[in-house]
Each structure stands twice: as C-alpha cells, then as structure tokens.
Design goal:
It is built from 18 helices and four strands. With 505 residues, it is an all-alpha fold. Helix 7 runs antiparallel to helix 13 and helix 16 crosses helix 17.
Length: 505
C-alpha cells in the first residue's frame, strides 16, 4: 500500500513542495491548547453555562470530559492507522462511507469559521475595554462600546487579518507565538483564580457537583453540549500530523492539552463561583473574567485578566485558521472541494491561498452576525451552533473508530474496550445529546425570532450547516465527480499532481 502520509504536492514545472515536518510534541500542545482557548472559554463560557444550568458547571465539565476523552483515544488510534490532515473527514469517509465522511469534514470546517467570526468579536470587545480604561471612548464620533457586536467585530477583524498573515508565513513561527501567549495567559488565569478561591465569599458547596440539581433534561443536554464546546479544539493537534516529525507526536500533544484543560476548567469554575453569585455570573456573561479581575485587584493589575483574554483570543483565532486550511487541503486533494485549497506556497510550505480564503469567509460571517446587536446574544447563538455540530463531528469519528477496529473484539477484553467499546459509547453519548437537544429546540416554540431564547433560531444555524453540507457533498459527487465518493478514502498526495501557488499571498 502506498504511503498514507500525504506530505507533498508536485508542480508540473517545478520541484516537489512539502508540508514541512518541523513540529514536535510541544508544538502540538501549543496548537491544541490554543485552539481549545481555555482562557476565552472560561471568560465567556462561565456566564453562558450559568445561564443554562445555574451553579452546576463543575460537574458538567467533568461529565463532558469523559466522552471527549473516549473520542480522543479514537482519534489517536485512527491517526496511528492513517495519519492525514483531513482527520475525521478522511477516517469517517473510509469507514462509514463518503457521505457521512464529507459531512464530518464539512461541519467542523464551518464550525471553525463561525468560531473565527465570533472570537474576532470577542477579541475586538477586549481591545475596546482596554481602550476605555485608557480614557478612549470614541473615534470619529463612533462610540467604542465593547458590548456592541458591530464595533467589536470591526476591531477584531483587524486582528484576524494580522494572525492570518502569520499563519501563512509558517506554522512553526505561529506555534512559537502561541506558546508564549499561553504561558502568560495561564499564569494570569491561575493567579486570579487562586486569589478568588482563597478570598471568595460564596460558600463552596458539594451541590455544585450534583448533576441531579439541574432543573430539566433539556437544560442538562444544553449544558453538556456547551461543556463539550469548552474542550473543542484539542483535536487541532491532529490537523498538523503531516507536519510533525512523528505521527505519535500529534496524539501526545492532544492528550497533554486535553488533561491540562480539564484541570483548568474545573479549577476556574469553582473559583468563579466562590467569588461571584449566580446573578453576577449571568449578568456579566462574556465579561466575567474582566469583572473578576476588577473585583479582586486595583489598576493596573485588574487589567491583567483582560490582557490574558486578549492573548487567548488571538492565539485561538490563529490556531483555528491553521487546522481549517489543512482540512480544506485534504478535501481539495480528493476533489471534494476546489483545487484552490491545494495550493502550497513555495517559500513558506503552507496552504497559503486556503488560509487567506478561510479568513475572508470568516470576515463575511462576522459581518453578517452584526444583525444581532447585543454581543452576549450573538455569542450564545454561536456557541450553541458550534456545540451541536461538534457533537456530530466527534460522534461520527468515534463511531468510525469502533467500526474500523471491530476486529479487536477478538484480541482480549482490554483491547476490545479501548478500540471498540469506549469510542462507540462516547460517540453515541454525544450524538444522543445533540439529537435530544435538537428535538427540545424544535418543540419549545412555534415561531422564529433572533433571540437566544427562541428554539427555532437556536436550531436554524446547525440545521443550515448540515443541509449545506449535504448539498456540497452532492456537488462533489455529481459535479466534480470526486473519487472520494467511490472509495471514501483520502488521496495519497505523493501519487497526485497538484497545482503549486507560485505567488506570495
């Protein structure tokens, strides 16, 4: 069998250009941790999850981690078997069939673009808060309101353009920046959360770890999907498996980041609830971390959590651009997407054209999101949509692992559990949660309006993503006549001639 590591494109009129193998475990940790964006998730997620399940965030984060860990073992096993920057798209297509495979790739790509769009708005909001602290409240008559979706988005898009340029010039330099930002933001986060844990006036309660205290099944399902979203991003380490020196480095980087995130999330959720009451958490929403800093410290120290949040948002935007462009590269190689996604920059060895296009699409989505004027409402809608499609993506990939390695049932109980049982149960849990939540949204109202309290609105975006994915799959099969829909397997790029981009982007 030919090599399953597609690391080269060949130009008709030039030498081979490789996706450069320059990354190790530390780089994988940096990409996975940055993409997970713990500081950003904590800053905006604690208020969002409190709105849904009250003070039960700590136990939901623990419960959500269990199926995510099972899915991580599935990713690691699949990556050993077939390292490919297309990850779930390639593995699901080869095992469950090309239609679910394409859908797995599509939903995670669209979810990443939505994430880029709303994280840009978060970044802009933080920049505007810092501007207010310096006394700058307006520019050219425009109020610099950090709660405004429009103003925050415009500022954040400037940052998105800058990090895209860095992602184009080389993934190695991008991971070095991400690692530096991570060290600063985690140091700040740990200091302030420890401070809150020690001095907080809210009494610690074991009821925070009681899932039966959640008001309803719908609230539990929505809270679990939101908690899964907290962990989303660790799998970015697998998107650069063709650029790591060893495929095993991707898995090690992903696992290290995943366990580090679990510790941070539980510690931060308890610390936030020690310092803030439930009404405070809900009221401050996406500004919960800056509010915590202001409660605990005077200036200039109170601004440190703001800087940490800004660094986290910048790192997560950059780390999301990288795997998204590489996922599209894998789809372009199979002709399920257009040839533009396969262009590798001759100088930087990165999918430069695809990276810039991803940024442009995210910019367009961010501009469209301005129709939701309140930033917190836009964030809740975006997080909910991403949570549902991530549950679908992870669920399909885990089931693909169980099906592909079903022969391990004959290799002893331990191997059967790790290769088949754990991935299958984890995948079914996430698919079941997503289906239950979708059904709840469908029946909770009889009309649609732009509100995070409206079930039809909350379900409309994930539904549109899935329908759009099926339509694009039909185009790939019947229009582009992609060989992926014959075999379901990703293409070996060593045996494929692809166009090389010879112009700087």
């Amino acid at each position: 069998m030919s090599s399953l590591v597609p690391d080269r494109t060949t130009a008709p009129d030039g030498p081979p250009v490789r996706l450069r193998r320059s990354l190790g475990v530390v780089d994988g940790v940096a990409i996975a941790a940055s993409s997970t964006a713990a500081t950003t998730s904590i800053a905006i997620g604690m208020g969002v999850i409190a709105t849904t399940v009250g003070l039960q965030a700590p136990i939901l984060l623990v419960l959500a981690f269990l199926p995510v860990l099972g899915i991580a073992t599935a990713f690691a096993r699949l990556n050993r078997s077939e390292p490919n920057c297309g990850s779930g798209y390639t593995w699901v297509g080869a095992t469950l069939g090309p239609w679910p495979g394409f859908l797995a790739g599509w939903v995670t790509l669209v979810g990443s673009v939505i994430f880029l769009a709303y994280t840009s708005a978060v970044t802009g909001s933080v920049v505007l808060i810092l501007a207010e602290k310096t006394g700058l409240h307006s520019v050219a008559g425009i109020a610099l309101d950090p709660t405004s979706t429009a103003v925050s988005t415009v500022v954040g898009l400037v940052v998105l353009a800058a990090v895209t340029a860095l992602a184009v010039t080389g993934v190695r330099s991008a991971t070095r920046l991400q690692f530096g930002l991570l060290v600063f933001e985690y140091a700040v986060l740990l200091v302030f959360c420890t401070w809150a844990m020690v001095t907080g006036e809210q009494q610690f309660s074991l009821s925070w770890f009681n899932p039966f205290a959640i008001s309803s099944g719908t609230a539990f399902a929505q809270g679990m999907v939101l908690a899964v979203f907290f962990f989303w991003g660790w799998d970015a380490a697998f998107s650069v498996t063709e650029e790591t020196r060893s495929p095993g480095d991707s898995a090690r980087g992903g696992f290290i980041a995943l366990f580090a995130m679990l510790g941070l999330f539980i510690f931060a959720s308890v610390a936030f609830q020690r310092e803030m009451s439930l009404p405070e958490l809900i009221e401050n929403g996406p500004q919960a971390l800056p509010y915590l800093g202001a409660k605990l410290a005077a200036e200039p120290w109170a601004s440190l959590p703001l800087l940490a949040l800004m660094f986290s948002a910048v790192a997560s935007v950059q780390s999301s651009v990288i795997p998204t462009a590489r996922g599209l590269l894998a789809m372009g190689r199979d002709r399920t997407m257009g040839p533009v996604w396969t262009r590798i920059h001759p100088k930087y060895g990165t999918p430069a054209a695809g990276t810039v296009i991803v940024m442009s699409i995210a910019t367009a989505v961010a501009v469209l999101a301005m129709v939701i004027p309140k930033l917190s409402d836009m964030l809740l809608a975006a997080v909910n949509a991403i949570g549902l499609v991530v549950a679908l993506y992870y669920g399909l990939t885990a089931l693909a692992c169980a099906v592909r390695f079903r022969g391990a049932r004959r290799d002893g109980l331990r191997e059967a559990l790790l290769a088949v049982g754990v991935p299958a149960v984890s995948g079914l849990i996430l698919l079941g949660l997503g289906g239950y939540l979708a059904q709840s949204y469908l029946t909770m109202t009889d009309h649609i309006e732009l509100s995070p309290d409206n079930g039809w609105f909350m379900l409309s975006l994930p539904t549109a993503i899935v329908i759009g994915g099926l339509a694009m799959a039909a185009v790939a099969k019947y229009g582009r006549r992609s060989p992926y829909f014959t075999t379901g397997r990703g293409t070996d790029a060593d045996a494929l001639e692809l166009p090389m981009d010879r112009t700087a982007v």
